Known about the structure:
Mean pLDDT: 88
Largest sheet: 5 strands, mixed
Order of helices and strands: HEEEEHEEEEH
Radius of gyration: 22 Å
Distance between the termini: 86 Å
Number of domains: 1
CATH class: Alpha Beta
Number of helices: 3
Shape: elongated
Helix content: 25-40%
Number of strands: 8
Amino acid sequence: xxxxxxxxxxxxxxxxxxxxxxxxxxxxxxxxxxxxxxxxxxxxxxxxxxxxxxxxxxxxxxxxxxxxxxxxxxxxxxxxxxxxxxxxxxxxxxxxxxxxxxxxxxxxxxxxxxxxxxxxxxxxxxxxxxxxxxxxxxxxxxxxxxxxxxxxxxxxxxxxxxxxxxxxxxxxxxxxxxxxxxxxxxxxxxxxx
Length: 193
């Protein structure tokens, strides 16, 4: 009995020593991947406020979310966002929009109470993940307000081929979807007179 116990313990310790912990990989989104810089047209005068940006509850976690079926998801335990996804989306758009708009007169939410915002861009992310078919999907409802009056209210959906196993490709495709959202917002702002 003692020999069996020692053998089992020895096998267990041997397995533990040979098992290497898989390192966690961290990722950040961009919103300017493959997009042209400054778009044609004139931007409206004034200060532009970006935010608030809301994400659904299923995305409020560090792990990346991958679709298994239309109604089922799995967490990629070893593939995580380097910061809160809502903050990463906000920062990525904040970095990309000045180049597309040709102005640095953009501030991120929350801005000081006394700050006068001429145009506000608010975004509700409705879905943002890679589905079971390896497609990056982004659906967002977004608005532009001018002096507290909503002048644009749109829903947009983007889909770009990604991967179901290569997380680097997933993040690249998700960044491209986010870039397309930013480009649509910039183009809309340039049409406002």
